[in-house]
Design brief:
Blueprint (H helix, E strand, L loop, with lengths): L2 H22 E2 L26 E6 L9 E3 L2 E8 L16 E2 L6 E9 L5 E10 L5 E2 L10 E2 L3 E6 L3 E6 L4 E5 L17 E3 L2 E6 L6 E6 L5 E6 L10 E4 L4 E5 L4 E5 L5 E6 L10 E3 L2 E5 L10 E5 L4 E2 L12 E5 L10 E3 L2 E6 L3 E5 L6 E7 L9 E3 L2 E5 L4 E6 L6 E6 L9 E3 L2 E5 L3 E5 L4
Parallel strand pairs: 20-24
Antiparallel strand pairs: 1-3, 2-36, 3-4, 4-6, 5-8, 6-7, 9-10, 10-11, 11-12, 13-14, 14-15, 15-16, 17-18, 18-19, 19-20, 21-22, 22-23, 23-25, 26-27, 27-28, 28-29, 30-31, 31-32, 32-33, 34-35, 35-36
């Protein structure tokens, strides 16, 4: 093999390395790079409560945190206590909360074997009674853990951040106090790990902040207040050609910080309720903020290198840093998905649409799937997967035409975004954790 051929081969190996890693592990909300993509995992196209189910395990209590996976270990969190606790409800409800339950409860982390479903360990981070209420659809274990392969970072929004080794030994913890949230709906933004730090955003009605912690010791490296009220969007690490940014989406503004907490740019005009996480589509940043019972519901693309206030002026659809903008195309709960050059947007009302992420042009308009949807879509091996609150997963062929391949039902409420590795698809329902995979 010639020297030039060897160099080309080495480059191909390096380019393929992240995809291989993504198939092995799903380390945080929406997996590696928060992309929601795991190619090369050979997921089945069909499943049920019995078909193509490798195992299922009961998860005590209630929780809508997503599973995270590292190698042979699957981690989930839950709020465990009296059977009198009101179970979350699916569908659309008038804004209302659930009273904090009386009695003694536990905020728990569970670890399962990814191959067999055997419970390996459990750890209680905190015991007591919740100080605040939550939304009728929500959970006191809403935030998804994150792992770097050595430690597991578990965050319960109004309780604290807890760091375990992968065998369940507590290494350190941090607490900031309990803060009221908008309309008593509870918390939801998950931690993210980048380099040697854990980043957290806590937007509430009293003392909103963003902070960076040393992932090995829990020591607070920096913390800055935010002129924000409650939001539920997990921050996003945007590694672009110019720099690495921590992008936060909230009701007041989208803000981007450098790794030392310096504000780089900000953008107004968001929805009155903000849940989705920003994502990348090639070299663009996609922002989505779409409370479906209010206006505006923006979906837009930002180019790298922005600084200062890049908000659109009235009547504008683009500017120096905003490439394109739709004022009514954003979605409420699910984070959008970028896959094979297309942007898929999943709406809480059970609809799906597709856009060209470079131009914002509609590829196909809203198509009916069914039910109510909170979980974010994911992609694997040329297919798009969408899980609704009734436990039905719609399998779509990726591409410019809407093509529904299968509808697979587990028959139980689900709001957690699944995890995907080469060991299977891990779906959390109200009471169970399923591992779905083709027979080996």
């Amino acid at each position: 093999m010639s020297r030039a051929s060897l160099i080309r081969f080495a480059i191909v190996l390096l380019m393929d390395a992240p995809a291989v890693a993504a198939a092995d592990n799903w380390p945080q909300f929406r997996g590696a790079d928060s992309a929601g993509v795991a190619d090369g995992v050979n997921l089945p196209e069909r499943w049920s409560t019995t078909e193509n189910v490798a195992w299922k395990a009961m998860v005590p209590g209630h929780g809508w945190s997503s599973p995270v996976v590292w190698g042979k270990r699957v981690f989930v969190t839950s709020f465990v206590g009296s059977d009198a606790v009101v179970a979350p409800k699916s569908g659309f409800y008038a804004p209302r909360d659930v009273s904090a339950p009386a009695g003694e409860f536990r905020w728990v982390t569970y670890c399962f074997d990814a191959d067999s479903g055997k419970r390996l360990w459990e750890q209680t981070a905190h015991s007591g009674r919740p100080e605040h209420t939550i939304h009728v659809k929500a959970s006191y274990a809403a935030e998804t853990p994150a792992t770097d392969g050595e430690r597991l970072y578990v965050y319960f929004g109004n309780v604290g951040l807890f760091c375990y080794d992968l065998d369940g030994q507590l290494l350190w913890s941090r607490k900031w106090g309990s803060f009221p949230t908008r309309l008593g709906w509870g918390t939801g933004a998950s931690p993210i790990v980048h380099g040697e730090r854990v980043y957290l955003v806590n937007d509430n009605e009293q003392e909103s902040f963003i902070t960076a912690l040393d992932k090995r010791t829990g020591q607070e490296i920096w913390r800055f207040g935010r002129d924000e009220k409650t939001s539920w969007a997990t921050p996003f690490v945007w590694r672009n050609q110019l720099r690495t940014e921590i992008v936060t989406c909230a009701t007041g503004k989208v803000r981007s910080y450098d790794l030392d907490g310096k504000l780089l740019w900000e953008l107004g005009g968001m929805s009155s309720i903000c849940v989705p996480t920003p994502i990348t589509a090639g070299d663009l940043l996609i922002i989505d903020s779409g409370y479906e019972f209010g206006k505006p519901r923006p979906l837009l693309a930002v180019r790298q290198g922005a600084s200062g206030d890049i908000s659109l002026k009235e009547g504008e659809a683009k500017n120096e840093f905003i490439v394109w903008f739709h004022d009514m195309a954003g979605c409420y709960h699910p984070t959008p998905l970028y896959y094979n050059g297309l942007l898929y947007v999943l709406y809480s009302t059970g609809l799906a649409a597709c856009f060209d992420p470079q131009t914002g042009d509609e590829v196909f308009g809203k198509r009916r799937l069914g039910g109510s949807i909170t979980a974010s879509p994911w992609a694997a091996d040329g297919k798009i997967y969408c899980l609704n609150e009734e436990g039905d997963t719609f399998v779509l062929q990726s591409g410019r035409e809407f093509k529904l391949l299968e509808t697979n039902s587990l028959g139980e409420m689900s709001m957690a975004t699944p995890a995907v590795t080469d060991r299977g698809l891990f779906i959390r329902t109200l009471s169970q954790l399923y591992c779905v995979r083709n027979p080996r």
